[in-house]
Amino acid sequence: MSSRQTETHEQKVIPEDDPRVQMAAERTVLAWIRTGLALMAFGFVIARFALVLQTLGLTTSPFLNMKATIIGVLLVSLGVLTTAVAPTHYRQYFRRVNESDHRFAASSMVVFVAYGAALIGVALAAYLLFVDFSAVVSPKLEQTAG
């Protein structure tokens, strides 16, 4: 091998006190938050898709709505879990870095946004469960009463 090839294959070592390290950690946690939000949105769309089919008259099965709701709530829950775990890993990273001589502060705004999005996701999952399962149970109660 020539010396030119070995020079191009060498990687630059970035010191941990470089601000790019902190920015990379913030970009990573924000990417996980985006992924969690996308999962929550996709879960909501799946849960509401059966309602669209019923509105268009393509199906009358309440069990299709229940299955779509269950799958949607599972996806919303996965998004909540992803969003809630992201700042935990973010804080752990900064604890490890701060044990060394380098001092960085974990951004509280990132943590606030992540936990806020997770709480909204929990409320969304509860709403989907309450609305869809009450619609399945209430017609059965009306039939037994009448």
Plain-language structure description:
The chain has 146 residues and is mainly alpha-helical. It has one domain (19-145). It has helices spanning 3-9, 19-55, 62-99, 108-145. Helix 2 (19-55) packs antiparallel against helix 3 and helix 2 (19-55) packs parallel to helix 4 (108-145). 23% of the residues are buried.
| Structure classification | mainly alpha
- State the low-pLDDT regions, or none: none
Shape estimate: elongated
| Multimerization status | single chain
Rounded radius of gyration (Å): 24 Å
Question: Could you give the distance between the termini?
Answer: 88 Å
Number of strands: 0
Helix content: over 70%
Mean of residue pLDDT values:
79
Main beta sheet strand tally, sense and closure: none
Q: How many alpha or pi helices?
A: 4
Number of separate domains: 1
Explain briefly what this protein structure is.
This protein has one domain.
Features:
elongated; 4 helices; 146 residues; mainly alpha; 0% strand
Write the layout of secondary structure elements.
Elements: H1 3-9, H2 19-55, H3 62-99, H4 108-145
